[in-house]
Amino acid sequence: MVNVKLYDNVLLRDGRKASVVEIFNDSYIVDIDVGGDYDTQCVDKSEVLRIL
Q1: 14 by DSSP, 3-state: which?
Q2: What's the CA gap between 39 and 20, in Å, rounded?
Q3: Which domains does the chain have, with CATH numbers?
Q4: CA distance 35 to 27
Q5: Mean pLDDT, 10 residues at a time, over the chain (52 residues)?
Q6: Radius of gyration of the chain (CA)
Q7: Phi-psi sector, 45: left (phi>0), alpha (psi -120 to 50), beta
Q8: If 0-12 CB within 10 Å is exposed, 13-18 middle and 19+ buried, where does residue 32 land?
Protein backbone atom coordinates (compact mmCIF):
# COMPACT_ATOMS: atom_id res chain seq x y z
CA MET A 1 0.00 0.00 0.00
CA VAL A 2 1.13 3.54 -0.80
CA ASN A 3 1.91 5.90 2.11
CA VAL A 4 -0.30 8.82 1.04
CA LYS A 5 -0.34 12.14 2.89
CA LEU A 6 -2.85 14.96 2.83
CA TYR A 7 -2.74 16.98 -0.43
CA ASP A 8 -0.61 14.43 -2.29
CA ASN A 9 -1.30 14.13 -6.01
CA VAL A 10 -2.00 10.48 -6.80
CA LEU A 11 -2.67 8.22 -9.77
CA LEU A 12 -5.78 6.06 -9.47
CA ARG A 13 -6.12 2.54 -10.90
CA ASP A 14 -8.39 3.79 -13.69
CA GLY A 15 -5.73 6.28 -14.87
CA ARG A 16 -7.25 9.44 -13.42
CA LYS A 17 -5.17 11.91 -11.43
CA ALA A 18 -6.43 13.21 -8.10
CA SER A 19 -5.46 15.25 -5.05
CA VAL A 20 -6.10 13.82 -1.59
CA VAL A 21 -8.15 16.23 0.54
CA GLU A 22 -9.14 13.98 3.45
CA ILE A 23 -7.84 10.69 4.84
CA PHE A 24 -9.89 8.01 6.62
CA ASN A 25 -8.97 4.52 7.89
CA ASP A 26 -9.87 2.71 4.66
CA SER A 27 -10.59 5.46 2.13
CA TYR A 28 -9.71 8.93 0.86
CA ILE A 29 -11.73 11.92 -0.25
CA VAL A 30 -10.08 13.08 -3.46
CA ASP A 31 -10.51 15.86 -5.99
CA ILE A 32 -10.27 14.15 -9.38
CA ASP A 33 -9.01 16.26 -12.28
CA VAL A 34 -11.62 16.25 -15.05
CA GLY A 35 -10.19 18.54 -17.71
CA GLY A 36 -9.59 21.73 -15.76
CA ASP A 37 -12.38 21.13 -13.26
CA TYR A 38 -12.55 18.84 -10.23
CA ASP A 39 -14.93 16.09 -9.15
CA THR A 40 -14.80 15.26 -5.43
CA GLN A 41 -15.25 11.56 -4.65
CA CYS A 42 -14.56 9.00 -1.95
CA VAL A 43 -12.22 6.23 -3.11
CA ASP A 44 -10.94 3.11 -1.37
CA LYS A 45 -7.26 3.17 -0.45
CA SER A 46 -6.68 0.18 -2.77
CA GLU A 47 -7.64 2.39 -5.75
CA VAL A 48 -4.44 4.46 -5.41
CA LEU A 49 -1.56 3.16 -7.54
CA ARG A 50 1.15 5.66 -6.66
CA ILE A 51 1.98 9.20 -5.63
CA LEU A 52 2.77 11.55 -8.52
Answers
A1: coil
A2: 12
A3: 9-51 (2.30.30)
A4: 24
A5: 93 97 97 93 97 96
A6: 10
A7: alpha
A8: middle
